[in-house]
Amino acid sequence: MKKLVFILGCFTIFCFGAKEVQAAETIVLTENTVIYDLEQGGLQQFEVENDLGESYIIIVEKEPQFLLAASSVSNGTYKITKERTLQWKASYKIDVSNNKITRAHSGSATAYTGSFKSLLLKVDSSTQATYYLKRTLLGLESSINLRAKLSGSSIAVTY
Predict the structure, then answer these.
(1) CA distance 66 to 11
(2) Residues contacting residue 34 through CB under 8 Å, at least 6 positions apart
(3) 87, burial (CB in 10 Å: exposed 0-12, middle 13-18, buried 19+)
(4) What are the CB-based long-range contacts (under 8 Å, 24+) for 118-121?
């Protein structure tokens, strides 16, 4: 009986042997993240609220490419914008090629109330760019970070 169970067990293992599995990079989402779908493209707008109940508008938009031949769906320039209505607006652009962020540029920040003390736009890695801003209002300083992380067919924007 033991031999029969052993033989059936071995037969089952060989018949239903290991299968090839492929894994793609996954984005670990934090609460303050929105996802831009590269396959959908165009302009995607998100109205969000942070932990403190403050409302923001996040816009990700693919810039038009008139003279470039058709290529990967994700290749191109994307504009990332974060706005706190009637207070401030910040945006920057990232260039994406072969699933990598090759450049972050055209950083812009407008304060409708208060002022911006410092602005730093940098590519943190080949898949991530962040716009670091420090804002002053009535003598109080606050930090604003706007991060874009590229993964597969999406851009995760952390606000």
Answers:
(1) 59
(2) 46, 48, 58, 60, 156, 157, 159
(3) middle
(4) 121/92
State the Cα angle at 123 between 158 and 49, rounded to 5°: 15
Strands (E), the chain: 33-37, 43-49, 55-62, 76-84, 88-97, 100-111, 115-125, 128-137, 140-151, 154-158
Please list, in sequence order, all residues whose beta carbon lies within 8 angstroms of the beta carbon of residue 157, skipping any fewer than 6 positions away: 33, 34, 35, 36, 58, 60, 80, 146, 147, 148, 149
CATH 2.160.20 matches 28-158: no
For the chain, which residues make up each domain, given as ranges?
28-158
The secondary structure of 106-144, three-state, reads EEEEEECCCEEEEEEEEEEECCEEEEEEEEEECCEEEEE
How many residues are present in the chain? 159
Q: Which amino acid is at 143?
A: S
pLDDT digits (tens, 9 = 90+) for 95-130: 999 999 999 999 999 999 999 999 999 999 999 999
Confidence check: pLDDT of 23 > 90: no
